[in-house]
Amino acid sequence: MTPLERVSSIKVKLGLLVAASALVAAVVASLGRVAGVSPWISIPVTIGIALAVTQLLAAGMTSPLRQMTLAARRMARGDYSVSVPVGGADEVGQLGRAFNTMASDLGAVDRQRRDLVANVSHELRTPLAALTVVLENLVDGVGSDPAALQTALGQAERLSRLVEDLLDLARVDAGKAPLSTASVELGPLLEACVAEVRANGRPVSYEIDVPAALVVDADADRLSQLVVNLLDNASRHSPRGGVVTVRAGLDEPDGYHLEVLDSGPGVPVADRGRVFEPFGTLSASAEGGGTGLGLAIARWVTDLHGGSIAFLDPLPGAGAGAAGAAGAAGARVRVDLPLRPPARTVASHLTPTHEESQMPTTPPAAEPAEPAKPAEPTPTTTPADAKADATPSVLDDIFGTYWPDSGVVGRFGLFIGAVVAGLLGGLLIPDRNAGLGTVVVMLAAGGVVMVAGRERRGWFPIVCYVLFALLSSVAVFRDAEWIVALCLLTAVAVLLCASTRAKTLLGIMLTGISWPLAGLRGIPWLGRTLTSVSGKGHGAAVARTTALSLLGLVIFGLLFTTADAVLGSWVDQFVPDVRPDTFAARIFMTVFVFGVVLAAAYLAVNPPRIDRNERTSQPVANRYEWLAPVGVVVGVFAAFLVAQATAVFGGEDYLRKTTGLTYAEYVHQGFGQLTVATALTLLVIWAAARKAPVETAADRLWLRVALGLLAAEALVVVGSALYRMHLYQEAYGFTQLRMLVDVFEAWLGLLVIAGLVAAVTGTAIGGGLWLGRFALVSGAVALLGIAAINPDAWIAEHNVTRYNETGKIDTQFLRGLSDDAVPALEKLPEDLQRCVLGPNDRDGDWLEWNLGRHRADGLTPGYNPPIGSEADPAAVCPDEPRYID
After folding, report:
1. Spatial separation of the C-alpha atoms in residues 457 and 442, rounded to whole Å
2. Is 421 found in the same domain as 342?
3. What is the DSSP-derived secondary structure letter of residue 337?
């Protein structure tokens, strides 16, 4: 049962859905704000919980519509044995029930259509075969006696009767059989009908029991057709010497009835509804040679008059003549008609509706009939069918062919792994600095994603997994938050690229975008994962087991930890102090880590199509179309390099004379533009390599020369940018940002070389997909290199050296360095040490241990000057900080 199943209006459901989601989002956001949780964590968690609540409340609201779409597609293929599960009382539930009724009715119509074709073919074949034999004999001059001709005439008349019956059915069903009512005296009409049937020569006798002067309003022709068909059916099923009785009677106040009784075998109760269907006879063809349409026509004539028809139990003592002696029960069919038919001309349907087929035909009040047997239930969609026709999600329309879901099988193990990673994140990360606990969480999360990956072979996934482990471990070696954060983000990037098997730079960027989108795209997969457990009957068992296990852990854990001090001390080492002020933060972190790990796992299970539809670019027709733009860029680069050379050889006097800038100001002015120009050079090389024709040796030569010259100039620009940064650092000191810019510019130079190699060797066209992976791996290795040299210590060392040489130092900047810099900063004079080192407050537990803090703690034992004392850094250099930047 879904949460909103009892609500009877889809509008009310939507209102409750919006209100509940908004309320939950507001409450969660307020808790995050009060607990001081970072917006980077609280906002995704708030959105995720609101979406979860929406998904929970919306369960079952639209699934019948999607299932109806699938069922309609199957019905279009001719499969009417479908139904959709409905339980709601709203408009969608009503539509689902109407859809099931329609599917059942169409199934009955289709089944009867097939039966009609088969039976008509059979009924036509028999007389046609006999007639053909007679005609063949006549052609051969054999059997031209009157008996043979009489046989042929009989078969032709049988064909004629069948065709006339079929035409009657067609006219009735099309509504083209209006009643032409008039006053009809029932006695003479029944006598005429008996006389017509008696002409068939069957060895039975007929009896008529009708009140004198019983006059009704009816269509005499149609009523005669009704009675004749009933009498013909009764005579064919009666044994030799049997009695067929037709009788009529008045039913007060405004109706009358007709009954036809025979002394045949009767109609079983289970078959009394089916015999009125076209060709629904039980054994008519075998026993009496009928068309199988007489009772169907009788029913439709009855419907035209606004009456009802049904087989009833025989009267007590039924059975006459030989049949009666044999104990035959006989058949009894009753027609109830109004004295004045309703003013209508539209006939009933070819087949009874689903509701009609489920209801017994109403017998007269005086003699109740046996209840009709309920129809067999329509088969529902089997699990195999459901798997074959996976229910499409509305998200399929959003992501389309870029990211098909196609019913990816749920994996409950990955869900449990994400839960464990989330719990570790909630226990180990909040209220702690990055350290050993962070590495544990990263490795646990990475393990889940690696297990989820479909392909773990090949050099690229292995390299990415190794880089992920190395980058994650930086948190246990370095205290500098900036390099730890960059390494952790890069670790996530290489892990995700291993999952999506990204090859190009565009594919790598799309992978980064796909990760947060996977939290939305994976909602149907998460539903299938949970259903895979609950659908096997294990859902309640898993929930019960989890609850009991947690209850036992809490109760007995509290008892034993409070009873034994040693056990309590052990537990304190591993279990965090869950205080009320940190409880909300831990919950937020748990949900956040669980969500991002589960999204990454889905990305590995079902990666999007990011590099699978690579198109080969069509080269331009003329060489100048690519060579001219590249030549312009080469010329601009050449002009810049000439200006650089002039500035270098002209010296600072020339710069002041022409620009009014010092050399330090000059080298700092355009560094950002040079970095952008280097990055754009990669774009120019890529575009030229794709558009330049390479059919002839001359084309390839021009490509290599032009791109080689452009790459050489770009490398000179890289060298110039690095030299500018070196001069700027010598003048203004060393910082983390300046170090990163240096490494980034050098990395761009490396990519320029790689791009040139790909272009001139032709691998950038069509198959040169290694360049994106090379950029990713080389960037990750560059970050590992920065972490390996201990960047904060390296920066501190160079600033100390600069101070020793120039006496210039930026104390405010050095105070912001991490504990990694403490060994280098202790080389400063004691007064500057007190100014830049700060108090020793490294009292975290073992889960936030890392090598940088451990070394700093060993080098500055007990250095913790009280605030406001002479040793307090704020008191040492409050007015005259020795910095110049």
Report:
1. 22
2. no
3. E
